[in-house]
Structure to design on (148 residues):
């Protein structure tokens, strides 16, 4: 392709399905592509090898792929494995997507949305500090007992 230019025109979500098992992409994005990670999902369902040589914009779904990135990725990603020679500028997918109704189910509508991530509780710093000091004291006590 060589150059990619997205015009979202107010779209909340764009899903780009890319077929093939071995994929090498060295395309340039035109225009202001910095926010594509929040609205564009690149879906590499069959990819087992994925190489991105230029800066890539959009979130990447390639769960079977052994991926290699040579520049930054603007978005979130799922890979089977990753060799990373660039960096990630996390632009976590923030759009919404309503999958088509399954004709075999009794439900006629299904919705799915994301708020851009789930918060993860972090242990208190004071508790970790106390645990670290206790471990140091216990170790020092053990050394004194051995010396005696």
């Amino acid at each position: 392709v060589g150059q990619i230019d997205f015009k979202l025109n107010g779209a909340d979500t764009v899903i780009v399905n890319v077929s093939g098992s071995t994929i090498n992409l060295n395309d340039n994005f035109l225009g202001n592509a910095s926010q594509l990670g929040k609205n564009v999902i690149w879906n590499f369902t069959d990819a087992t090898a994925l190489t991105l040589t230029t800066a890539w914009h959009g979130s990447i779904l390639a769960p079977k792929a052994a991926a290699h990135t040579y520049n930054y990725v603007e978005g979130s990603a799922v890979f089977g494995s990753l060799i990373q020679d660039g960096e990630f500028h996390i632009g976590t997918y923030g759009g919404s997507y309503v999958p088509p109704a399954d004709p075999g189910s009794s439900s006629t509508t299904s919705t799915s949305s994301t708020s851009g991530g789930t918060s993860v509780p972090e242990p208190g710093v004071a508790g970790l500090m106390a645990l670290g000091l206790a471990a140091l004291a216990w170790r020092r006590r053990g050394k004194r007992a051995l010396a005696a």
